[in-house]
Amino acid sequence: MAKDMTLWWGSGSPPCWRVLIALEEKNLQGYNQKLLSFEKGEHKSKEVMDVNPRGQLPAFKFGDIVINESYGACFFLESKFKSQGTKLIPDCAGSDNNCALIALIMQRVFEGNTLHQKMVDVFMYNRRVPENERHESAFKRLKETLTTELQMWEGHLKKTPGGFLAGENFSMADVIVFPSVALLLRMGLSEDKYPKLAEYYKKLQGRPSVKATWPPTWKETPGQELLKDI
Amino acid sequence: MAKDMTLLWGSGSPPCWRVLIALEEKSLQGYNQKLFSLEKLEHKSKEVLDINPRGQLPTFKHGDNVINESYAACFYLESQFKSQGTKLIPDGPAEQALMYQRMFEGLTFYEKLNVVIYYTFNWFVPEGERHESALKRNKEALVTELRLWESYLQKLGSGSYLAGSSFTLADVVVFPTVGTLFRFGLSPERYPKLGEYYNLLKERPSVKASWPPHWLESPKGLDTLKDI
């Protein structure tokens, strides 16, 4: 099973990390993998383009199946390997509690995309926007938007005493969102201003699937301070 | 079942349309609904904010379960009502994987459309921050994206849905974007496969039943995209 899988990935990229965590959680260790460097432009190499015409990572193959969307890969792995490893999305049938849980998990999973986008809008601003198109007003607004978003997640975490995003158990919501939270902290987010996010980060850091997939480049170098004033 | 559901929505909003289609496909007609005007900023009204602190539509409630993300609502409905209406997630691994791939590419597709059609709206980009160079780049990115989707449909052949021979969640979430493209004047001559897909889906009962009311009132549409 795992031997028929190949993942092309980059260190520290939340979309890649989501799939790495999902593979661990579903007991699919033993997959083939290739670590590539974004900095060296390896995500645009022929090897990646052959699997993913968009030239993006993660790129994931399972036999003839190709899924180059991190959410897609995570959902597919949960669906196809439902009965092994951690149950990331409960079954609905016949249980009101489970249905409420699915609703919450799905809500957080997809809000996770918003969180990730808002974070990327800030720290990639100078890389994505040509110099002559940049505006202090725009950058300021993006930072304010990120701040509002982070405060919302602080609020979410205050409401789930279990410590995971959807309550007492680790779920798909954590697979999807934790990597973005980790990147925020890596980029200098203030633990004093965002104590619940910091607590969540520390709690998940200890999880085996997270430890096993911690970005190799993060172990070698210190983080940045880009987001310390957010 | 449907009577315990409430959907707050806006006409022509693709995220809202996704949920409307899903409700029809799962035979959940009879849900409570309220139409809000996005133009009049009614999505920021207290009624919406009370359920969705983000002040966005769609906002969906089923009993005590609140879901304010269109994809989340669609997955939830398929999961809760798996055994009724249309089966929206195929069992076959290849088809299922393709469905997931297209669904999530659908988010990118929607984003690339928005940064073109809403570029000149103040709520999207304030006038002082707009640049011809940016709009040009956004249009080029949209063209690249459109060509990708043309190629996807080309590979599957005439009359197919996005993940193959069956209608799936991929169509539920992506068709509204395609509907919007043609509403804003996309040329079916330049994008014949998308045109064919649009013509196929617009006849589907769930799509007809949920067609944006203001598009019915003024069928003409815009021509923002006619030259791309």
Second CATH tier, the architecture of the largest domain in chain A: Up-down Bundle
Helix count of chain B equals 9
Any low-confidence stretches of chain A, pLDDT <50, length ≥5? none
Average pLDDT of chain A: 95
Q: Which term fits the overall shape of chain A?
A: globular
* Number of discrete domains of chain B: 2
Domain GST N-terminal (chain B): 3-85
GO cellular component, one term (chain B): mitochondrion
Protein name (chain B): Glutathione S-transferase A-like
GO biological process, one term (chain B): L-phenylalanine catabolic process
Any chance you could write out the topology, listing elements then pairs?
The complex is a heterodimer of chains A (230) and B (228).
Chain A: E1 5-10, H1 14-25, E2 32-36, H2 46-51, E3 59-62, E4 65-67, H3 70-80, H4 96-123, H5 125-128, H6 136-158, H7 172-186, H8 195-205, H9 208-212, H10 216-220
Parallel strand pairs in A: 1-2
Antiparallel strand pairs in A: 1-3, 3-4
Helix pairs in contact in A: 1-3, 1-7, 4-6, 4-7, 6-8, 7-8
Chain B: E1 5-10, H1 14-25, E2 32-36, H2 46-51, E3 59-62, E4 65-67, H3 70-80, H4 93-117, H5 132-156, H6 169-183, H7 192-202, H8 205-209, H9 213-217
Parallel strand pairs in B: 1-2
Antiparallel strand pairs in B: 1-3, 3-4
Domain GST C-terminal (chain B): 92-222
GO biological process, one term (chain B): L-phenylalanine catabolic process
GO molecular function, one term (chain B): maleylacetoacetate isomerase activity
